[in-house]
Amino acid sequence: MQYEPKKQEVPIWQKKMLDTEEAVAYFGIGRNKLYEICEKRGANFMVLYDGRRFFRREKLEAYLNKQYSI
After folding, report:
1. pTM for this structure?
2. What single DSSP character describes residue 40?
């Protein structure tokens, strides 16, 4: 029998970067609204890596907390 190391999952609220599906679930907003927010001038929440979009959780969370409505 071969030993397989146990994969540890990091809770979503502790992750630095979230993929699109995680960000949508965590913030409770739609994918299109998330993309719209990140395309605004001066918004540096989204990072493209290998053709995939990742979101900086802490910066996006701080931005959303300051907004009156989205």
Report:
1. 0.77
2. S
